[in-house]
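Re: that backbone. Tokens:
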């Protein structure tokens, strides 16, 4: 009898991985700890329960990165996308679902598939060696016992238990006529560059107005189980501002060691720095700007900063409980743990963020495991696709610092900043500019992704499952 593939976690990633593997004739045992043990966020014992929003976000596959990911998943035979389409409720241009019907359909699909066995009960330690290859898809609320076992293999510093996230900005939306590249005190990095940071200057008036806005900003109110500890190294900027009006100027916004090349005689009152966040150089994070402000306030507040008036955000800041691996350091390109390759990870524990992204990583993990069972080398999707861009971010697309070390890895939603740049088409012999340039860029990235995903799907395995 063929040894089954064990998958731990009955969320979107685990169920998608199980479906993909079973559809390729690999028997699966899917382990779900509920109802024997539950998390503070779950309210049912159904598989693929949507614990937060019922929205899968934009369904626009022509100009939105998550819409492109939707379409790629549909073409790849995703159970989660098929179920979302079948349980859709009105939501304008977004894809939203009836959450109860969604979970019920996925639960039925798992229970009725002849090659999938659902076992209820918590896996409290490392999977037994006689299980062979295992996919761990336990999500952002991984149980304490399993998290401790994983930390024992990876090292205590390799598993984070909360996010302290600074906003991330698309580079091409930063006004470089105001901002400039420079490292503090012109300190060179390993490549000799003295310009590893983007600097946005503030005079006293702009700084005081910014502090006033921070002090009056409405903040997220978390459930007790979501709250995270504050450490001096990752205080929310609004908490720093509340400790004194000059605190930020002596913290993340200190102006020392930096000179504005456009007006070198005038000393900036404060300076906001941004650091490259991905290897492509398309995304920059706001250094030290983790925050608990509500999302609708953040963009307006941060656009008060000179140089960021038209900033487009790949993600906004936040602080909340979240268990995830330092994946770029720990996982190989097919999500296997380098220290223990029989363990493969999927879903939000890898550092992806969101329902669709979690399902996407589950889909890839299931396909990779099935390819290995068939004696084939798993084929990684090209980085020009949404699936490939997400895979690359998780396993190696993160930028390194000037010392060669990887800065704190943070979860990320799919966004066009993770895709390699694309050459824009000519319009009447000219490149588009302004708002037209942004839309043309998104259209070109989306079109290239959907072309390339077709090629990958055709080549990845002899035939697609029904």
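Recovered sequence:
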């Amino acid at each position: 009898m063929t040894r089954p593939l064990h998958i731990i976690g009955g969320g979107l990633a685990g169920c998608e991985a199980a479906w993909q593997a079973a559809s390729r004739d690999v028997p699966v045992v899917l382990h779900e700890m509920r109802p024997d043990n539950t998390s503070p966020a779950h309210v049912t014992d159904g598989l693929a329960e949507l614990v937060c929003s019922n929205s899968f976000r934009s369904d626009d596959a022509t100009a939105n990165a998550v819409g492109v990911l939707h379409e790629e998943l549909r073409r790849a035979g995703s159970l989660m996308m098929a179920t979302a389409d079948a349980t859709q409720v009105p939501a304008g241009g977004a894809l939203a679902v009836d959450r109860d019907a969604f979970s019920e359909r996925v639960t039925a699909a798992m229970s009725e598939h002849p090659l999938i066995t659902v076992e209820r009960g918590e896996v409290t330690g490392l999977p037994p060696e006689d299980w062979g290859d295992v996919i761990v898809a336990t999500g952002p609320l991984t149980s304490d016992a399993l998290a401790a076992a994983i930390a024992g293999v990876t090292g205590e510093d390799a598993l984070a238990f909360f996010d302290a996230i600074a906003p991330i900005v698309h580079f091409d939306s930063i006004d470089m006529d105001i901002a400039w590249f420079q490292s503090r005190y012109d300190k060179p990095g390993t490549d000799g560059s003295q310009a590893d940071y983007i600097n946005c200057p503030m005079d006293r008036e702009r700084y005081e107005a910014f502090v006033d806005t921070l002090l009056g900003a409405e903040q997220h109110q978390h459930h007790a189980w979501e709250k995270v500890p504050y450490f001096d190294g990752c205080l929310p900027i609004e908490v720093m501002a509340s400790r004194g009006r000059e605190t930020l100027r002596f913290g993340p916004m200190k102006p020392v060691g930096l000179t504005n090349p456009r007006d070198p005689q005038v000393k900036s009152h404060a300076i906001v720095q941004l650091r490259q966040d991905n290897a492509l150089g398309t995304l920059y994070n706001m250094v030290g700007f983790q925050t608990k402000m509500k999302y609708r306030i953040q963009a307006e507040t941060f656009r008060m900063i000179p140089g960021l008036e038209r900033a487009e955000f790949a993600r906004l800041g936040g602080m909340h409980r979240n268990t995830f691996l330092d994946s770029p350091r720990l996982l190989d390109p097919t999500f296997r743990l380098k220290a223990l390759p029989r363990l493969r990870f999927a879903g939000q524990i890898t550092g992806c963020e969101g329902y669709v992204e979690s399902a996407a990583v589950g889909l890839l993990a299931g396909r990779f495991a099935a390819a290995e069972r068939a004696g084939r080398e798993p084929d990684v999707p090209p980085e020009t696709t949404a699936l490939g861009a997400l895979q690359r971010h998780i396993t190696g697309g993160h930028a390194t610092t000037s010392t060669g070390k990887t800065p704190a890895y943070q979860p990320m939603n799919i966004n066009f900043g993770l895709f390699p740049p694309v050459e824009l088409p000519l319009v009447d012999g000219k490149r588009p500019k302004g708002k037209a340039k942004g839309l043309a860029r998104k259209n070109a990235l989306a079109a290239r992704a959907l072309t390339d995903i077709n090629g990958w799907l055709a080549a990845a395995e002899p035939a697609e499952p029904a």
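The first helix runs from residue 12 to 22. Confidence is low (pLDDT under 50) at residues 401-406.
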